[in-house]
Write a structure and sequence with these properties.
Rossmann fold; Elongation Factor Tu (Ef-tu), domain 3; 3 domains; six-stranded antiparallel beta barrel; five-stranded parallel sheet
């Protein structure tokens, strides 16, 4: 038994998780690798070769590292629990006229919980992943903070982690940049891996065609939603669309309607199969309501606290004031924000620290 203890390392076969396993091994932990099979793309009716963390090549890449370093490696099939939660939510949210963020749900409700269960079964005190983020502790509470490499920082997608998850998690890439991670892989002899590209698409939609995915998941979807109206903010009918689930707030391209000037999706009304269009200035909001709150740095969100609120993954964030309304948090932006999309995650930062986060319910207070 290692003096550092046993750690279960999530291994996707990519460079970040591989270097995580290398670093934990070199730090003196007893490493056990786990690769989680979350999705079989062929089952969705797609015609693209399976890629990413679920592919056979990626699983083999993960296994090779475990063989090289002499630690155990397990493959765990969590497709059923993944599908029941993440994919059902993905479809339900689009059918409700919202824009989901499946990676947040997968990280915090599926992968971490699945890892903790396996860690307990294998007597592992810790779990480790290749996320670019930091875990800090203050006043008895654990919370996520931004990583050193702000270009790779993934704190936004980790707002839903529980205190138990954070207490047992290790992020060895927290103080490394991506080039440094690549160099570690190269120096350890993993030359091909050090040059391996990254995948940014949703794992179960590797062709990036979420509309096609919805059609395969919902029988007769086109017939159910065809023939709805594009309308202006004043209710004027501007034309017909292909079905409200195929549009997202802020979308400009692919609307299939010529207005003589750029127009954007302003609102989606599923009850009447209506998509409201507006000019760019109509997308700006001075506040929003956020629900399904998870608090990190503080036990509750302090009313009146100022935060930099991020409404999407690559959003730089906007200074705002938060109001704790019990089940929801009201967010008052100090500068109007464009494209607030219900269903997306809102994450509240105090400096580099995550105060908490939730799901955008309404693009108004």
């Amino acid at each position: 038994m290692s003096k550092k203890g046993k750690v279960l390392v999530a291994m996707s076969g990519g460079i970040d998780s591989t270097v995580t396993a290398l670093l934990m091994h070199e730090a003196g932990y007893e490493v056990i690798g786990i690769t989680m099979k979350t999705w079989d793309y062929a089952n969705s009716g797609g015609n693209k070769k399976e890629t990413g963390c679920c592919s056979l090549d990626s699983i083999n890449d993960a296994r090779k590292v475990s063989v090289d370093l002499g630690f155990h490696h397990f493959i765990v099939d969590i497709r059923e629990e993944f599908g029941n939660y993440v994919i059902d939510n993905f479809v339900d949210e689009y059918m409700a006229g919202r824009t989901p963020n499946p990676c947040v749900l997968c990280n915090t409700h599926i992968k971490w919980e699945a890892m903790l269960r396996r860690a307990d079964a294998l007597d592992c005190e810790f779990i480790a992943t290749g996320h670019y983020a930091k875990i800090n502790q203050e006043n008895g509470r654990y919370f996520i903070s931004k990583a050193k490499d702000l270009h790779k920082d993934q704190s936004y997608v980790l707002w839903g982690l529980s205190q138990e998850c954070m207490a047992r998690s290790r992020f060895p890439l927290a103080d490394l940049t991506k080039p440094e991670v690549r160099k570690i892989a190269y120096d350890r002899g993993y030359v091909d891996l050090s040059k391996k590209g990254e995948s940014y698409e949703i794992c179960f939609v590797p062709d990036n065609d979420y509309r096609g995915f919805l059609r395969r998941q919902v029988n007769g979807l086109d017939a159910k939603v065809a023939g709805g109206n594009f309308v202006a903010s004043n209710g004027e009918v501007l034309g017909q669309h292909k079905g409200y689930p195929f549009y997202t707030v802020g979308q400009r391209r692919g609307l299939g309607i010529a207005m003589g000037e750029p127009v954007y999706v302003k609102e989606i009304i599923p009850e009447t199969n209506t998509v409201v269009l507006g000019k760019e200035n109509e997308l700006f909001r001075n506040g929003m309501t956020v629900g399904q709150i998870n608090t990190l740095k503080y036990e509750t969100i302090p009313t009146g606290i100022e935060s930099t609120t991020q409404i999407r993954y690559n959003d730089p964030g906007t200074l705002s004031k938060l109001t704790n309304n019990g089940d929801t948090v009201g967010v008052e932006f100090y500068a109007n924000v464009k494209g607030v999309a219900p269903g997306q995650s809102a994450v509240f930062y105090e400096g580099d620290d995550v105060i908490g986060g939730g799901i955008i319910q309404r693009s108004e207070l």
